[in-house]
Amino acid sequence: MEVSTINAAVFAKMFLAGAKNLEAKKEWINELNVFPVPDGDTGTNMSMTIMSAAKAVSELENPTMKELAKAISSGSLRGARGNSGVILSQLFRGFTKVIAEYDELDVVILTEAMQKAVETAYKAVMKPKEGTILTVAKGAANKALELCDDTDDIVFFVDEVIKEADHVLSKTPDMLPVLKQAGVVDSGGQGLVQVLKGGYDSLIGKEIDYSIEGSAASAGVMKITAETEADIKFGYCTEFIIVLNQPLTEKQEHEYKNFLESIGDSIVVVADDEIVKTHVHTNDPGLAIQEALKHGSLSKIKIDNMREEHQEKLIKDAEKLAKEQKEEETKEEKTEEPRKEMGFISVSIGAGVNEIFNGLGVDYIIEGGQTMNPSTEDMLNAIDHVNADNIFILPNNKNIVLAANQAASLVEDKKIIVIPTKTIPQGITALINFIPDQSAEENAERMTEELENVKTGQVTYAVRDTVIDDKEIKQGDYMGIGDKSILAVGKDIKSTTEDMVAEMIDEESAIICIYYGEEVTEEDANALGAALEEKYPEVEVEIHFGGQPIYYYVISVE
Questions:
Q1: How far out from the chain centre does Cα 259 lie?
Q2: CA angle 507, 513, 519 (to 5 degrees)
Q3: What does 281-348 look like in DSSP terms, one character per residue?
Q4: H or E element that contains 455
Q5: Rounded distance, CA 93 to CA 440, Å?
């Protein structure tokens, strides 16, 4: 099969196939996150980013390349979540700037578009780091440049580019020691490779279960539709690891995959000489388990009822709609008030933290934080709700700063100032140091400077075995995670938290603030506070209810 040009209809199918492939592999990609925390979300963030663009593409009827490019760029920019999602949206932004000028794409145009994609993405990141999605994208673009003068065949060209992207991805642990220590490749880079592989499968005519309903048949574009419980063909998301009795032969691996395809879909099988990682959606998890047991023992079995998850999603969607309606009413009330000079938007993580931010004068709270990174669209909606000339945004998470900056670049009628807060305590400190009588610029400078005086530690549990910062971590262990590394690991929450604080405190420390989560009792939080007061009598200890999920304690030392 040889293809020299592709039109808008073909490219639309390729893009949707790439989006669907990433969406199907998101949980697998999540597991590649270096820190074994229960909210590892690179795959989820990238999937939600590209599916926002896919939705925009699916709404087009017989699109031109220019219309298609605009839908991909705008949809991904607004839907971007997390650093990996923002970088992916910037890759799309650069790529679509080039293809928008043509009716059909060939190898030369695709190469130019890939170069522009990498250039745009690198510019979006203040301190680009090699060994990440950026490196994988650059490797693919460099391979495209090498090939474009030697072939006109897009099928051969794309296949070779993907092989190079896979090769560069395999080398990311050599570029980032933290990846090598954890035994994983870069999760963002893996996400990009899955997008490319999905697009290639569509290009060569592979039959793909998109879970996307056909529409606009003449253009070959597919419609994404709302899924009902009855639409869930296979009800159980089943995952496990086979600890092999002996390495699988190529024939055995092929037969195993064929069996899984006969009982389900969304199949991911990753095998080496010792283990096989398996993911399948099926109506009978027992059949998958029985087949797997023929090859060895099973570990880390996880079975989720997706129909129950769908019901929970319907409830959450209804609650979200009610909240949006209430916010719209509030917005109408606020727009009737005189426009003020300065306003505040803060990302928050729990009911108690929400109250603290409200008490410090925040106009609009975006809930989500670490457990669900807000999108650029969420930021834009928040900005729309705050009736002020100058609006400060406090992301309070290092994985949200890029999305906040991206939102700021899209606003023209208000001045948006992103204070690069990476933790909840940094956001609180920034607000405390705001002085109403000073200008927005003076406040931004001081608020940013004060962030350096805040150390933050967060206590959660490990979801898998790994080694990070020379600390051996077992699934279920408690971890105290500092600003730059894991500070403590243990079997007991209280002692692990105390060990974490010991790594944070120094002679200049004056105050410890404890924000306890939804799974911690007030009694336990007070006991921790008393222990810290006894150990550090010269330091003031404050205890606040945070109400955050996932993290038992968020603690600051200043």
A1: 32
A2: 135
A3: EES-HHHHHHHHHTTEEEEEEEEEEHHHHHHHHHHHHHHHHHHHHHHHHHHHHHHHSPPEEEEEEEEE
A4: strand 455-461
A5: 31
Structure tokens at 470: 């020379």
Type of residue found at 8: A
Task: Indicate yes or no: pTM above 0.90.
Answer: no
Q: Name residues of the chain where pLDDT drops below 70.
A: 34-36, 38-40, 208-232, 307-336, 369-371
pLDDT, tens digit, 9 for 90 and up, residues 371-384: 578 889 999 999 99
C-alpha span between 137 and 231 (Å, rounded): 36
Rounded alpha-carbon distances, angstroms, from residue 264 to 143, 237, 467: 36, 10, 34
426-454: burial string, b at 16+ Cβ within 10 Å, e else = bbbbbbeebeeeeebeebbeebbebbeeb
Q: Of how many residues is the chain composed?
A: 558
The CA–CA distances, whole Å, from 209 to 24, 212, 239, 287 equal 10, 8, 20, 22
* Strand order through the sheet with 364-367: 364-367, 340-348, 388-394, 415-418
Place of tokens 């691996």: 253
Contact 492, 448 (CB under 8 A): no
Distance CA 425, CA 219 (A): 51
Quick one: DSSP state of residue 207?
A: -
